[in-house]
alpha-1,2-Mannosidase (Wolfiporia cocos), 613 residues
Amino acid sequence: MLTSVRDTLMRRVTQRQLIYAAVVFFVICTLYFAAGPSRGTGRWDVSPSLLGSDTPPEVWKARAEQVKQAFRHAYGGYERHAIPHDELRPLTNLTKDNFNGWGVTLFDSLDTMILMGLNDEFARALPIVEQADFIPSPHVTNSHRGYAPFFETVIRYLGGLLSAYALSREPLLLQRADDLGRLLSPAFNTPSGFPAFGVNTANGETVGPTVGILAEIASCQMEYTYLALATGKKAHFDKAEGVMNNLRRANVSTRGGMFPRRWSLQSGRPTDDVLSVGAAADSAHEYLLKMYLMTAQSDKSSYEMYIRTTNHILTNLMYLTDARELLYVTDVATPTFSPSHRFEHLSCFLPGLLALGADQLDLSLDVLDPRTLGDEERRSYELLKHYDLRQLHRWAAEGLTTACYLMYADQPSGLAPDEVQMQPAPGFPPRGRQRNRVGGKRWIDAMEEWRKYGRRGAPPGVGDRRPVQFTDQEQKNMKLRSARTNERGYSLKRTDYLLRPETLESIYLMYRTTGDPVWRERGWQIFEALERECKTPSGYASIENVLRSPAPQADDMPSYFLAETLKYLYLMFHERDLVPLDRWVFNTEAHPLPVFTWSAWERSKFGIPEPSS
Ligand SMILES: *[C@@H]1O[C@H](CO)[C@@H](O)[C@H](O)[C@H]1NC(C)=O
Ligand SMILES: *[C@@H]1O[C@H](CO)[C@@H](O)[C@H](O)[C@H]1NC(C)=O
């Protein structure tokens, strides 16, 4: 009896152990096949996510509604305390006139109001749009006093008016866009046709150095081209075309086919050797693809420039960190192509752009004639020949967006620093033989290893990574903190978060182009951090130090927070796709403009050649 009880007991234990062992085996197998080295047969499939998502549709609906309330809160505070000044100071309820003093927050917010169905706010805004004189305001307190900074005025005011017009068909908005486009146009009276830095809209005088910054001279073509379409005026078209012609003519063969940061407004030629997708360059690269998409793929030269640019980015500007193998994009200086390994929040628009291009176009090297390529460009071309270009862009997009998201998820505040210094994996310097850390590990070199060893597992830098968060103790103790920093793969160069949109923009585009709900969940995490850390009684504040929670706030609410950050969040959570990517193209301030085809008459009137294909 006693024996038999013990036997039964033993048997039970053995059974339990067996079941336990079976469960463990099953879990290991699942993990192995979900995330392990058997993945990556070359399909663009969604990487297994650490977050997962089974959030039901009604919750997404409620979340979209919460973003709308956040917009009403921010815009309501602006209306109450700041209108018609440019921006609200969300801590003191004072105002700021930093972009002409015509009410930049209002102009930048118009299309977001339409998309969110905020008709009362929109109706209240129209009389102010009607009355704006577009003459330099004496209230302007910063260095832009007495003239309108061309680039910012185009992307925020003109882009805002045109997009709101395209979405609402309210004639007043086109009228005012036409007025503003005309008043700004003396900026193009330079020998090259690249716009000057600023223009006094009262008398047409221009200001600024004779050397222009790439982003500022080559991010107005979408706005002026759509303005030409909507008004039928050739004068507007010619402004955009002048800029495009300079870019088409530029010989950047010594710069790997990519446009550098500085250009002469006299000759229309590049004057420096720094290649970047961050500050001072970003949106110029963006407009190459977007001009092609907006004109229903009619301008092949724009597409060709986009492929040449991204070829160089993929092969020379993208690196991997040692810890966590994070994929990032940095800037390099020719002729040595030495990288700085800085990674800017501003650069986080790039993965969204790559995802958009790969979603809308069957990307291929075929658009290039190898005989026309310089040495550096040919090197990139030869490397990329081994890949399906479209898939490579998608992998780059996924890896970069993941790194951009982790910059948020790693911090106690849940918000990302404006700039970090990456710690590259040791690699080969671009022109030498020895392994070296300063040169760092280029993504393309790691991809080549991956390819040559049979494409096992996810491509380098692609797939999920865990956040590395500091404990409270590490947070307070510098020594403990720096020890853990190496696990992250980067250190902070700046600690502020300026309510910037770029990461949410890319998360939005990743969600729309892959359909993977994990991106939406990540967007929601960031929205929760915004609500927790940035909200004030009258709006939302920038953050001085993302390493603390509650984070110390700064007295600023940039207009792009309403134009871009909240818009992308709303579109991400909304049940319907309100801005289908095959019918609309966002300008660099997140103002959607419609995709259109030139009519035969418009081609004739504006002098546009017939499409070649
Ligand atoms: C700013 O205005 C809000 C209402 O919009 C109010 O609750 C808050 O106390 C004001 N803050 C200051 C510093 O006056
Ligand atoms: C561009 O410049 C390079 C180097 O200066 C030169 O070798 C090449 O012929 C130029 N290409 C064109 C099309 O002018």
The longest strand covers residues 419-422. The CA atoms of residues 25 and 508 lie 37 Å apart.
